[in-house]
Amino acid sequence: MNETTMSHDVLITTAFLSPGDGVDALLRGSGLTTRHEPNLAALPEGDRRALLAPTRAIIAGTQPLTANDLAMAPNLQIVVRTGVGYDSVDVAAATDQGVPVCITAGANRQAVAEHVFALMLSLARRVPENIANLAAGSWQQLTGRELRGATLGVLGLGSIGKAVAMIAAGFGMNVIAYDPYFDNAFASAHNIARAELDDVLAQADFVTLHLFLDDSTRNLINAERLRLMKNDAILVNTARGGIVDEEAVVDAVRAGVIGGAALDVFEQEPLPADSALLHTPGILATTHIAGATREARGESGRMAAANVISVLAGGDAQFIVNPAYREDVA
């Protein structure tokens, strides 16, 4: 790859965006040139440097965007993650470089909330087990459980946690929630009881995680906290893999400490084929698809493109996660 041949304004690493799609057309229609490279992290350093050197904006997927990568992009003015998680971006390095890191807040709220219930219902009604039995020629009518009347514990009552709570109400579930920045007005309006973290774990029949991953939440759900849960409770994680101690979850399900776990996110992605998470009855795993709907991805891409277009035209960035970047610019 010859650095002198590289000429683009926007580098797009999000895997579900592609040349010629609606987002690409929106950017090009605004006079910007684009380059798609979903495997940026796998490229040799020289090739990454060639791609990043002319880049003025990055629309980023879930692959890492390191301090070294950012340093290779001296013309960079904005990074936008097509999603709400930003732990894959070295935000501190971006801040030091005077670059805003943004998210597409709210774009996948409904998609993720619906997937929570797809996972929850799958385990509650023992759907994977039933499918496996039927494929093996065994006609068994396994006894499941209903959501109505059950208690749902929501850890993280932000945008997605609120959407989950509202769907839960439609199922007739009782909702309790923990959030360090608890929205009392929303909770009161939607009959959600406030509780401390450990109390939510102890009282809930289903626990769903909607917290950001940072130093305060890494391995938050560990062996000790899993032991607080009911022995038939189901844990659902569509937030970030690092919030859960995966080895502890495997041990807890195998030992009957909890009833099961449904995970859409993992500490290492892609999840290795020999992971115990894939070979433990009672654990259901999906490939980080909670936000992967046509609607959510379309909205996320449009929001990212709009943010990039605005900033490169001299406007303000939206949904910034590192407002301190302005101090470094100054």
Automatic annotation (TrEMBL):
E.C. number: 1.1.1.95
A Pfam family this chain is assigned to: 2-Hacid_dh_C
Gene3D superfamilies per record: NAD(P)-binding Rossmann-like Domain (3.40.50.720)
MF GO annotations: NAD binding; phosphoglycerate dehydrogenase activity
Residues annotated as signal peptide: none
Residues annotated as domain D-isomer specific 2-hydroxyacid dehydrogenase NAD-binding: 117-290
Enzyme class, spelled out: oxidoreductase
Keywords: Amino-acid biosynthesis, NAD, Oxidoreductase
Cited PANTHER family: D-ISOMER SPECIFIC 2-HYDROXYACID DEHYDROGENASE FAMILY PROTEIN (AFU_ORTHOLOGUE AFUA_6G10090) (PTHR42789)
Protein name: D-3-phosphoglycerate dehydrogenase
UniProt organism field: Microbacterium esteraromaticum
